[in-house]
Amino acid sequence: MAPKERQDAEVRQPLLGGSGSGNGRESSDDRADSPDAQTQVNNNNNSINAWLGLGSTSDTELRSRFHRIVAGVTAVLVLLLAVNTVRARSSGPPGPAIHITQTAFTDGLASCRAIRTASVDAAGVFRKGGAPQTRPSGNPRHTALASLTNNSTPLLLKHATIWDGVGSRLQNTDVAIANGLIVRIGSNLTPRDLLQAASAYSSQRHSTSFSTFKEDDVEVVDVQGRVVSPGLVDMHSHATIMAVPGFWGDEDGNEMAGGPTNPYLRVLDGVNALDAAIEYIAAGGVTTSLIIPGSGTLMGGEGVAIKHLTTTKTGSNSADTLTLNFGMDPKGSDGKLWRWMKMACGENPKRAFGGRGIMPGSRMGSGWLFRQRFEAARSALRAQDDWCESAESVSRQFGENNAHRFVAHRFPDALEYESLVALLRKDIRLQVHCYQVNDLDMMIRNSHEFDFPIIAFHHATEAHLLASKLAAENISAAVFADHSLYKREAYKHSVRAGQILTAAGAKVAYKSDHPVLNAQHLIYEAQKSAHYGLDEDTAFAAVTSVPADRIGAGWRIGRIAEGYDADVLVWDRPPLTLGAHPLRVIIDGYTVKSDPLTPQRPPQIAPAAPITPVLDASHTRLSAYTVVNVSGIYTQPSEILKGSILVENGVVTCVGAKCATKGTVFDLNGGVVIPGLVGVAVPLGLEEISAESGTADGQGGVADAISGLVHARDGLRVGGGGKLLEYAWKSGVLAAVAAPSGSGLVQGVSVAFRTAAQRYSDAILKDDVALHITIGNEAKNTYANSISSQFAHIRKLLTSQDSPDSPFAKVVAGKLALVASVNDPNDISKLLALILSTAPKARLIVATNSGAVNVANELAKAGVPVLLQPPRCQQKSWEERWCRPYGVSGKSTYELLKSAGVKVLISISEPDQIRSLLFEAGWGTVGDSDVGGGSGVNVNAIDAVGVVTWNVADAFGLEGVGRIEVGKKATFVGLDGGPVGFGYKIQILADNDEVTTHPIQN
């Protein structure tokens, strides 16, 4: 819909004083209601009446009197004309009774000129990203920071493999860095070359902001062929406004008290420059993040782009020094100073306000509130334009020094509308949280009606269903690689979305939504997208050049190129390899992380040829089948065989080099076979969509759980075409231990079942597996509202059970495992002592993501296994501050636990991440191990397989799963390589007598 037309006079009339035609040109003395004019007319009338008089007179006298009257009137009229002429020349047109000051008028004209200048090619500047022709200050951030702290050390990286962020890869190339810039890229560069390049930049820009140095000042690092890339760019993060370790007092992501539309809020006002996440996110390679408000409201406010340069490097604790625009010339010589805004549609605003009886409670309400706000902003914009036109007209007619006397109101720039007006003027790059096609369509309609551009739809799980339209609109999708099913909006997500969007011509970026996903591992999103088929260079661009371009900074970050900001990473292995992390991180020329260049890992072996034959349908029942040509069969701990696997009537009858072939013969072409994975302590089979209660079993109460009434077997549902269980079995998770959901001290008893089962009667592997409890802040409720009372209740429950059939009595007898979710190492120690003193036969499993390493020796002595859930921790709470992140120098969490003698299990915390379980196992063991670092702990693929198979089966007491054994049911997974690493695809799934080949994730 075209913008509504509006008569100019409706806006301009109030600008000038007076009434009438509104042209502003009437003299005050010509108006009937002018006091001076009225007095003059009254005086003239009195004189004439006196002259006329009454009484008889002769004709001659009458003629004489008439001539005198005419002469008198003529004289008066001449006098009046003379007076009015003088007044007109001296005072000009009428002014209002109250007018603005000269300063206000001048400021208003300045605003008008700025608007006109910016509007000359606003669309072109927006499209091109606002790059200057040259950058006089080079890297303006470095220039500004150098005045606060020391200059960065000039650096020469030698013998690098360059991934430039836009698809080019250069071998044996050097990168020269100085004054916060990449000043030279080439071969066989020397410190002298670096010095000359830096001097050339200084002279070309006629700038004094470039520091001088000598050749001896240059640090030379031979990276020995490692990949050197641009820093990663995360275009959707809440770091610094949701600071670690997750205190309520640091929760500043959403302003919910101001109603559903708050476009005028500024994230910068909430940025915590001391957030520890700034540093650990940088350690993962993210050098720039767009920090935006949360999605609780329709219009959340303005975001801010920051560099992850810590306060120790900047010499300042101010949030201002973090910003991407820090140091930039306000007049634009360093490029456009972009602003950013966040809006949201769909479920979140509906849920936040509709439940309180406040609009929006539906998508219709959301659409109206958006349009209402946009219309108010458009009216404000038109008022500005009309003021400018009228004020400039008056200024031309009467001069800038006098014109203010005829303007009643200041330039209309109410703060409430300023942000949205800036959006309509294309000074703001809009990011919109939208998932579903109907939401995407609604926002696109708004953008057409009110003429504003949308940079990207975020989350956008259905964007691939509207790919061509997004491409035509030049709207990107900022998405997760595979995170889904957590609410209805996310249900139609596809791991192929990146490929579909790219094929249609739409740009794709991967983002963290930190702390939803840990931004330290942003590269993981690109890795998974490449695993699922996206071109590697496109996947890497999706975390470098694409988000840089879309936030309007692609001319300075997101690429390895001369003249760009020196945001540079040196990787320990190719970036799209499982577990890859930077050894060196450079931001604005400053080194913020520098680990030793440990020996490089051998290159990943290419996948084998696909399996043959390929079955036409999933779950094909075969009475006999043989898998041949297997290069590695991971049967159990410390045993890898070669050869074949023979299965008859769903039972393994032979494993190894001497097996006969029977039934259908599948040739794995040198691939590997591992036991079916076991996913534990997640609500598989108990829910489909986390936020939709109608798809879930629900939460049992603590009292019911304690009394033994809450058993996951009673809530289990399988089959029916649900996505979650399909995610599981298609990724090789053929068995699961599903625990009941609950928020208190005791959740209930878990069940073990087959994930591919289509009927309940075929699903159960073990009715009752373990009793699940939680200790810590998350378990506080009316039953046990303190940690001390939680321990008191557990002590009482373990020592005073009257019925031998109660779950706690079975724990004491060793018939049920006890899974305790607990993160603080103090609480782990107390629990170990409590179990030892009250239930020495109990089979305790500690489920944690942070504290176990601190008490590893105690756990090993007690023979208690540890379930790392999730293995990649982050400090989301005070109790999780013990988290040891991946990619740190020295031993990994797994190595520390293994070296202490602790058996380790690995699982995930988000149900939809079940399809990444093998990735997580490989990353948490082999991928994060201290290769060549002198850890003294041998970590290999057997560890990776064991933490999700036989270790799980042993800890939970499961028979017939987690191993490949003759005489036991067949549950195994065949891959075309690996099994650790991306790029290896599942070729065959064996689940008893049911066989599936080439399972495809969607």
From TrEMBL:
Biased amino acid composition, Basic and acidic residues: 1-11
GO MF annotation list: hydrolase activity, acting on carbon-nitrogen (but not peptide) bonds
Domain Amidohydrolase-related span(s) in chain numbering: 460-575
Source organism superkingdom: Eukaryota
A Pfam entry, by short name: Amidohydro_1
Residue span of region Disordered: 1-48
Transmembrane parts of this sequence: none
PANTHER family recorded: ALPHA-D-RIBOSE 1-METHYLPHOSPHONATE 5-TRIPHOSPHATE DIPHOSPHATASE
Protein name per its UniProtKB record: Amidohydrolase-related domain-containing protein
Species: Physocladia obscura
